Amino acid sequence: MPPLTQPMRKLEPWQDPAAKPYIQIENVSKNYGPTQAVRNVSLSIYKGELFSLLGGSGCGKTTLLRLMAGFEKPTSGRILIDGLDITHWPAYQRPVNMMFQSYALFPHMTVYQNIAFGLKQEKLSKAEIHERVQGGLELVQMLSYANRKPHQLSGGQCQRVALVRSLVKQPKLLLLDEPLAALDKKLREQTQFELVNIQERVGITFILVTHDQEEAMTMSTRMAVMEEGRIRQIGVPHDVYEFPTSRYVAEFIGSNNIFEGIVTEDEPNHVLVESKEANCFLYATAGAMPIGSQVVVAIRPEKTMISTTPPKSNRNCTKGVVRDIAYLGDMSIYYVQLESGKVVQSALPNLLRLSERDIKWEDEVYLFWRAENSVVLAT
Predict the structure, then answer these.
(1) 308 close to 363: Cβ distance less than 8 angstroms
(2) What are phi and psi of 281, to 5 degrees?
(3) Predicted pLDDT of residue 269
(4) Which of these ranges, 110-124, 136-150, 189-203, 364-378, has the smallest mean pLDDT?
(5) Exposure of 83 by Cβ count < 10 A (0-12 exposed, 13-18 middle, 19+ buried)?
(6) How many angstroms separate the CA atoms of 133 and 114, rounded?
(7) DSSP strand E in the chain: where?
(8) How many C-beta neighbours within 10 Å does residue 69 have?
(9) Residues 68, 96 contacting (CB under 8 angstroms)
(10) Is residue 5 in some structural domain?
C-alpha cells in the first residue's frame, strides 16, 4: 500500500516568496514643515486583500491613505500599483477610488443618479452606465431604492450607496477612510460582514483605515498597526493579537496585563522572569533571552484565571483584592489590586448570573495563567 500523504496547504500570497505584491509602498515619508506625518513606511499588499491600517488619532494612517489616493504627494519614496509607479500621477489618473467617512452623496440626486454620476463623467454609454448601476444596486440589495434621495435612506443604506458608487468605476484599489464610523454599534457590526462579503465577491483590493480594533480584527486579511507615522507590526489579526512584537502593540490591541521584570533563568523554549509588580516568578514561553534582561510580560485578561483558592504552583500566580467588577452582559471583568498596588484584569464569560458568582467585591483572590499564554517582550 502506498504511504498516505497529506495534501499541501496553499500558501497565502504574503507567505509565498514567489508572489508579487499588487501595491508596493517603498520608503515613503510625508512631511508638513517640521512635522513628519509618515516616516519611511514600506508595505506590500496583495491582490484581493482587505488590508487595514489601524492606529490612534495622529498616527499617520489617513495621510498614508491620501498618499495612495493622490491627494497628497510624498516627500520621499514611491508608490506602485500593479507594477506601475504612480507616485507622481494626479488623483484623477490613478486606478484608485476612495470612499470617505461622510459618504459625500449629492442630496439633490436620487440613488441611481448618485451612482451614475462618476460614470457619466467618464463619458460611458447610457447602456453601460445602466448596466453597471443596476448591477451595483443588485450587489447590495438596493434595487428598490434607486429613485430615493439620500435623506430618505438610513445611515447603513447611505453607506452602501457610497460603496456602490466607488465600485461601479471598477478601480484596481478601493480606499476606505473610517467608512463605518457614523453608524451605531449594531449596524456597524452588520455592515462589517456585508463589506467583507461584497469585497470577496467583487475581488477588488480594499485598504481600510480605522481606529476601531474590533473592526480591523473582524474584517482584515492582514492589518498594520501604526504609531507616530511608523508601522509597528504587520500580520493577520490572530497573530497581531496573540503575538504582539512590542509593548505598544500589546497595549493598543485589546487589553493586556503588563508586568515588568528581569530574566533570571533561560531554559529551552521558556524563560523565568522575576517581577516585583506581580510579586511572583513568571514562567513564560519565549525564545532565548540573556539573563538579566529587562522585559515585560503580557497576559490577556481572558487568559487570566481567577479563584478564591490558591493553585498548586506558585509560578504565574499572584494574589490581590477585587476592587471592581464590570458587568458587560456576555462577560464580566474583575479589576484586582495586587499587593504591589498594580491593578490587573481577569475576564470571565457570564455562564452564571452575577448574583450567583462566588467572587464578590473586596474578596481576596488568586490570579493565575498558563506559560504559553504569556508573551515576553524586550524593553
Answers:
(1) yes
(2) -90, 135
(3) 82
(4) 189-203
(5) exposed
(6) 10
(7) 23-32, 35-45, 50-54, 76-81, 84-85, 96-99, 173-177, 205-210, 222-227, 230-235, 257-267, 270-275, 280-285, 294-299, 305-307, 317-327, 331-338, 343-349, 364-368, 374-378
(8) 17
(9) yes
(10) no
State which of 212, 247, 282 marks the end of a domain. Answer: 247
C-alpha cell recorded at residue 357: 458568582
| Residue 240 host element (H or E) | helix 237-242
At 109-166, the pLDDT tens digits run 999 999 999 888 888 899 999 999 998 898 888 899 999 999 999 888 888 898 888 8
Cell readout for 232 is: 509597528
Instruction: Find, among 29, 120, 123, the residue nearest to 76 by Cα.
Output: 29
C-alpha distances in Å from residue 379, one per residue of 90, 260, 281 = 43, 9, 18
Q: Cell numbers at residue 4, please?
A: 498516505
Which residue among 193, 220, 247 closes a domain? 247
Residue 6 pLDDT > 60: no
Strand 222-227 with 205-210, pairing? unpaired
In this structure, what are the phi and psi dihedrals at residue 46, rounded to the nearest 5 degrees? -105, 160
Q: Which residue has the cell 481606529?
A: 211
Domain containing residue 185: 14-247
- 230 and 269 share one domain: no
Place of cell 498614508: 64
Mean local confidence (pLDDT), 232-242 = 94
Which amino acid does the sequence have at 128? E
**Which residues are bridge partners to 43 per DSSP?**
25
Q: For 156-213, give the DSSP string.
A: HHHHHHHHHHHHTT--SEEEEESTTTTS-HHHHHHHHHHHHHHHHHH--EEEEEES-H
Residue 208 C-alpha cell reads as 481600510
